[in-house]
Amino acid sequence: DGHGAGRRRQSAGFGMMRVAFGLVALATYLAQWSNVGRYYSDAGILPHEDIAFFLRGMYRFSLLDHVSPATAFGVYLMLIAALMLVTIGLWTRAALIVSTILLFSFQEYGVITLDGGDTMLRLLAFLLVISPCDRAFTLANLRERFRRVVRKNHDQPPAERIMPIWPYRLLFWQMIVIYLASAWEKLLGSAWT
Fold first, then answer.
1. 132 strand-pairing partners
2. What is the 3-state secondary structure (H, E, C) of 49-64?
3. pLDDT digits (tens, 9 = 90+) for 20-64
4. pLDDT for 74-129, tens place per residue?
């Protein structure tokens, strides 16, 4: 189909990006293992009653606003488990949704630890949720391909290994916006010159 070929791409790129996202997010949050209570609970640096004073009160969402200090570590373990599932590609769509909600929650509550990389993780998480990134490099896909080889003696047809081009274009334009905004911010600052 030469007519629609320009609007579809191999799904392997987004599958690899999902795996890389999972590994980076896992490394980021596993590094905070011993500081979960300090950064993300009422018993730490930012008590719940001071959130409105230090953080924006409107248009913010964090599940950690509604948990006790004892359960903050449990929510953290849920994030780690969801990111592991995202990385290996098991129940990928549900794991992506859960990990995205939890990433937003941890980053909205623990603003002390944030930098530009955390913003990029949030953007990638959201983009992966709405993209068909579960078509490649998942355990479910591997199992299906193995069944086809064993039962039918042929691999997955190439038509099932492609995806629409819009996620690639959305990522491309998001990167352009990020780099332009970063350049603009640095050019306006005095430290840059």
1. none
2. HHHHHHCCCCCCCCHH
3. 999 999 999 999 888 887 787 777 676 666 666 666 666 777 777
4. 899 999 999 999 999 899 899 999 999 999 888 887 777 777 778 888 888 988 88
Element (H, E) at 162: strand 162-164
Which single residue is written with the structure tokens 């068909």? 132
Question: Would you say 29 and 76 are in contact if contact means Cβ atoms under 8 Å apart?
Answer: yes
Identify which of 53, 137, 122 has the alpha carbon closest to the alpha carbon of residue 87: 137
Contacts of 98 (CB under 8 A, 6+ apart): 78, 82
Predicted confidence (pLDDT) per residue in 71-86, tens digit: 888 899 999 999 999 9
Nearest CA to 181 among 123, 103, 112?
Answer: 123
**How many residues are there in the chain?**
193
Under a CB-based contact definition with an 8 Å cutoff, are residues 176 and 56 in contact?
Answer: no
| Dihedral sign, Cα of residue 106, residue 108, residue 109, residue 113 | positive
Which of 63, 57, 75, 74 is CA-nearest to residue 104? Answer: 63
CB 121 within 8 A of CB 21: yes
pTM of the model: 0.78
Token digits for 6? 């320009």
